[in-house]
Design goal:
single chain; Four Helix Bundle (Hemerythrin (Met), subunit A); globular
């Protein structure tokens, strides 16, 4: 493995840790699971690390451009799904997040086939992810009052940024489609 592939290896490692997360959390859920909390923190920090390494050292690869955002969504949906499965979160707290990701996934598929330009990540999208994972961490360690507050803020930002992504990319698509229609 070359250094250039280190960010991809970290991303794959994060995906490989998901079954460990599920096993650890299943032992204690829905009560506090500190071991799971530490694992999730490490997984979240690995996402920061792989992105930093790729940008800092120019180790971006085509695989990484596709793998990292997919791994981020799988990681997030896996966490939320586990909290739903083990009764930590009710369905109504999870559905808006899954719908948002489903719409973005469908939009990303259209964008991949519609044009080669990669959508830019919004700061609000990163912030909502950080806040949401923090809320999930509080649920995992069973600090429910803080968890609900942080989760509600993160979920709201998450849905709002999803709408902003869709709106922005639709605007880009319309501007590109307009010259073709005029021709």
């Amino acid at each position: 493995m070359t250094r250039r592939n280190l960010p991809n290896a970290i991303t794959i490692g994060r995906l490989c840790a998901l079954p460990v997360f599920l096993w650890l959390y299943s032992r204690d859920a829905p009560n506090a699971s500190w071991a799971t909390g530490w694992l999730v923190l490490g997984m979240a920090l690995s996402d920061v690390l792989d992105g930093w390494l790729a940008r800092r050292y120019g180790w971006q690869t085509e695989l990484g451009r596709v793998l990292d955002p997919v791994a981020d969504r799988v990681f997030f949906l896996f966490l939320v799904g586990a909290l739903l499965l083990f009764g930590t979160l009710p369905w109504w707290a999870v559905v808006p997040l899954i719908v948002r990701d489903g719409l973005l996934l469908a939009g990303a598929a259209v964008l991949l086939f519609g044009y080669s330009e990669k959508p830019r990540i919004m700061r609000g999208g990163r912030l909502s992810n950080i806040i949401l994972v923090s809320g999930i961490e509080f649920f995992i360690i069973d600090v429910r009052v803080i968890a609900w507050i942080v989760y509600a803020v993160g979920a709201t930002l998450y849905v709002v940024t999803g709408v902003r992504y869709i709106w922005r990319e639709y605007g880009h698509w319309r501007r590109r489609a307009a010259p073709a229609a005029d021709a």
